[in-house]
Specification:
The chain has one domain: START domain (Alpha-D-Glucose-1,6-Bisphosphate, Chain A, domain 4, 2-Layer Sandwich). It contains 3 helices and 11 strands, in the order ββααβββββββββα. Strands 1, 2, 3, 4, 5, 6, 7, 9 and 10 form a 9-stranded mixed sheet that branches. It has a two-stranded antiparallel sheet with strand order 8-11. This is STAR5 protein. One of its GO terms (biological process) is cholesterol import. One of its GO terms (molecular function) is cholesterol transfer activity.
């Protein structure tokens, strides 16, 4: 599947905000089933950038504090990371489903050894129904991630666009497997 990735300097930190946009050949509910940020969800199975996902505290039905860990990446140039975020999930009347997150500190989640603490600035995924096309979903993603550590910005800039394209490709495979 094709995905368009664009970026511009972030107003939040000294990196970029990345925008991904692509059509996923599945209904919005199946796309959401694959991407929703819940403990025991499918994301750890198909997203190569998510090793583990846990809910640290459920604040409400739609808001939680979560810890996500990532494996090493980019031929091990990028060490494993951990992110602690407050996450909001919302469904709109038109069927759009949103997952939005930003970094937060939590007393039950201090930095762990063997991980570099990264920080997600306001980011999210919008799973948007396409009118008249029930088996296709517009997926908009926004990533504003400070990977932390001592990575040169050039390494980060070369990693993110390919990583986002891989996210869409792997998601497409995951929704096809969900229907099989």
């Amino acid at each position: 599947s094709e995905v368009a990735v664009s970026w511009r300097p972030s107003a939040e930190f000294a990196g970029n905000v990345y925008r991904g946009e692509g059509i996923v050949p599945a209904c919005p509910e199946d796309v959401w089933e694959c991407i929703k940020p819940v403990a025991g969800g499918l994301r750890t199975k198909w997203d190569q950038n998510v090793k583990d996902f846990e809910v640290v505290e459920a604040v409400s039905d739609t808001v939680s504090v979560c810890r996500t860990t990532t494996p090493s990446a980019f031929m091990r140039i990028i060490s494993p990371r951990e992110f602690v975020d407050v996450v909001l999930m919302k469904q709109y009347e038109d069927g759009t489903m949103l997952s939005a997150a930003t970094n937060v500190e939590h007393p039950r989640c201090p930095p762990q050894p063997n991980f570099v603490r990264g920080f997600n600035y306001p980011c999210g995924c919008f799973s948007i129904p396409l009118p008249g096309e029930p088996d296709r979903t517009l997926l908009l993603t926004f990533f504003q991630t400070d990977l932390g550590g001592y990575l040169p910005q050039t390494v980060v800039d070369s990693f993110f666009p390919a990583s986002i394209a891989g996210f869409y490709s792997n998601l497409t495979k995951a929704v096809k497997a969900l229907k099989a």
